[in-house]
Structures are given as structure tokens and as C-alpha cells.
Amino acid sequence: MKTGVALPNVTFRTRVRDESIEGTNPYRWQDMTTADYFKGKRVILFSLPGAFTPTCSTYQLPGFEKNAETFAEYGIDEIYCMSVNDSFVMNKCAQSQNLETVK
């Protein structure tokens, strides 16, 4: 991809926390589109071969989290990580990495 190239219109099936749901799994499915995530923003979108893989978990993902403030200084609004894993695995990966910025 090149800077300024629009992403195709895609719908992502996401899991979002919903406090109105009782029990140990207070999440619901919510459709989000490419526009919901990217329209009108400058973003970094990077991909990993898989969650919990050694290089990804040791260098790639933590590097983006660690440098989020620097990216923001360059006008980056959001940082997103994609992988082949489902949302359950990705959420656990984010939790294990103590992510605060990378989504």
C-alpha cells in the first residue's frame, strides 16, 4: 500500500464489551466497516503472521505499542494490528501484551 490509497470497503465482525450483558462473557458481535476504522484518520495498519508467535510477541507488536507516542507526533491517529487469528485469540494476545494504544 502507498500513503493515501483508500482501503476497499470491508465489513469486520468484531467483539465489543457490553456491560448490559451479564455473566463471565460480557461481549457481543458488532459489524464495523473500513470507514468506521479509517475514514478521516491517519492510521498505521500492520499485520502479523499469528498472535503469540515469538517474533511478533517479542518485537513487532511491542514495538508499535512502545512507539505510539512518537507516531502520534507525526500525525498518526490510530494503530491497528491484523492477523489470521480470530477475535478471541487477538483479544487475549492484546491482553497478554498489556496493550493500551494498539488496537
Overview of the structural elements:
There is one protein chain. The protein is an alpha+beta fold and 103 residues long. Helix content is 33%, strand content 23%. The strands form two sheets. Strands 1-2 form a two-stranded antiparallel ribbon. The chain has a two-stranded parallel ribbon with strand order 3-4. The chain is globular, with a radius of gyration of 15 Å. The mean pLDDT is 90.
Brief synopsis:
The chain has 103 residues and is α+β, with helices and mostly antiparallel strands. It contains 4 helices and 4 strands; from the N terminus they run ββαβααβα. It is globular.
Please identify the structural class as seen in this structure. Answer: alpha+beta
The first-to-last residue Cα distance is 20 Å
SS element count, helices? 4
**Helix/strand order:** EEHEHHEH
| Residue share in helix | 25-40%
Biggest sheet strand order reads 1-2
Q: Given the C-alpha coordinates, what overall shape results?
A: globular
Largest sheet: 2 strands, antiparallel
Spans where pLDDT lies below 50 across 5 or more residues: none
Beta content: 15-25%
Q: How many strands appear in the DSSP assignment?
A: 4
Radius of gyration: 15 Å
Average pLDDT figure? 90
